Amino acid sequence: MTSNFLKVACRDCSNESTIFSRATSIISCDVCGATLTSPSGGKSDLVGCNVVETLE
Ligand SMILES: [Zn+2]
């Protein structure tokens, strides 16, 4: 099973963050506090961000 890190950009303020693709907790934007991801069935559901890059 592959896990990796994703570079994502907040949809609200475009701040870039690096998150774990299988994070099991809600991750919030450091800048504006928007919810970026929420856990869904063992992987992160990207609810408030767009993937910029997948990091191996
Ligand atoms: Zn933000």
List the topology elements.
Elements: E1 5-10, E2 16-20, E3 27-28, E4 35-40, E5 43-46, E6 49-55
Antiparallel strand pairs: 1-2, 1-6, 3-4, 4-5
Bound molecules: zinc ion (ZN).
Would you kindly provide a written description of the structure presented here, covering whatever features stand out?
- This protein is mostly beta strands and 56 residues long.
- It has one domain: N-terminal domain of TfIIb (Single Sheet), CATH 2.20.25.
- The protein is built from no helices and 6 strands.
- It has strands at 5-10, 16-20, 27-28, 35-40, 43-46, 49-55.
- The strands form 2 sheets. It has a 3-stranded antiparallel sheet with strand order 2-1-6, with no helix packed on it. A 3-stranded antiparallel sheet has the order 3-4-5, with no helix packed on it.
- Strand 3 (27-28) and strand 4 form a beta hairpin.
- It starts with a strand and ends with a strand.
- The model has no long low-confidence stretch (mean pLDDT 92).
- Bound molecules: zinc ion.
